[in-house]
Amino acid sequence: MSLGVALFGATGSIGESTLSVIKAHPQRFHLAVVSAHSSVDRLVSIIEDFDPKHVILTNAAYAEQLLGRLPPDFKGSVAFGEASLIEAAGSSEVDVVMAAIVGGAGLISTYAAVCAGKKVCIANKESLVMAGGLMMTRAKDQGAVILPIDSEHNAMFQCLPESYVIGEQISGLKQLTLTCSGGPFRTWDVERMEQATPLEAIAHPNWSMGPKVSVDSATLMNKGLELIEATHLFSVSDQQIEVVVHPESVIHSLVEFVDGSVLSQMGSPDMRIPIAQALGFPERLELDIERLSLTAIGKFHFEPVDHKRFPALHLAREAISEGGDRPVVLNAANELAVDAFLQGHLKFTQITSLVSDCLNHIKSQPMSSIEDVLEIDKMCRRQAFEWVRERA
After folding, report:
1. Exposed (0-12), middle (13-18) or buried (19+): which is 199, by Cβ within 10 Å?
2. Is residue 270 part of a domain?
3. Are 143 and 115 in a shared domain?
4. Which member of 7, 228, 262, 271 lies 3.0 to 4.6 Å from 17 by CB, making a disulfide possible if both were Cys?
5. CA angle, corner 134, sides to 128 and 136, nearest 5?
6. Pairing state of beta strands 241-245 and 173-180?
7. Phi then psi for 384, rounded to 5 degrees?
8. What pLDDT, on a 0 to 100 scale, did the predictor assign at position 204?
9. Which parts of the chain register pLDDT below 50?
10. How far apart are alpha carbons 149 and 349 in whole angstroms?
11. Distance CA 315, CA 313 (A)
12. Which domain holds residue 369?
């Protein structure tokens, strides 16, 4: 029986890779729901290729443009606005939700899918950074199955027994190791990074990603967000997580046990691999991709993180260690700072400076609900915006 997939964030890099996997396995999956924010051209192309039952455009300003370009034979429904994602997440026609909306914008729809007890493939790491505790508690209460899509967390999951359930404590675990390529500025000094342009920052050496994630990889904030994400997914403290630079991006993560055994997952830097693993779990899906050749690679290299040049990882550790609303502040400030950098309003090195200022000067607020998370996120973005204006 074909499983209905709701793809939230279809026009980004994760969305494109997910569509590739669905297309390769038409007997296993069909696109039940597809969403985009404002990319009408690409959304129309997806409708023509996959004939989804439900289409959502979250930016209603483009509604007329989309309606005027729908294929003549399209018989599905069309909805507008973010509230439509919440309804779609709970639809009986949806078996699997691929949460691929970038940034805090993906929180509500991801949370709705968890509350609906769905199988949720989480590529939206920010939803766990902002509300990981709430998300994991709701998943347990509602019987939702969470599967990680980030290549690092998916690698860790693959190294654990097939019976392991995300969110449980791992028997005999000693340490988790996240690897990172080091990004495009791995060998740059601080003075050179101060002059880095957005085009240089998004030129990731190994992965094909959107601009926001690419900049996060350049600052290593992406690894900080993944560290916070891992604490929730695998029920560990940040002190049990090590981060090492691995320029080849072949070993995606390692899991060390108390007896000294270390398991790792390797593969080509292709996001279709973790996506297929999660969609097909517990079965393996065949993929037509470039196969890993150890002889072609020849050698693996590993380096410690230089925290003086890349302070983002330390900021993330502080945020998750302090807990409460600190990860929300970290994420909101970073998203706004990255956007300001991409628009030319901040220097590259000012991204982490702004995040640090927000963490140091925004007072901690109580947080016990998803509404609290959203309010703190909004407040922090307002404050960060004012600081960007002062620096511009």
Report:
1. exposed
2. no
3. yes
4. 271
5. 70
6. parallel
7. -65, -35
8. 80
9. none
10. 29
11. 5
12. 323-392
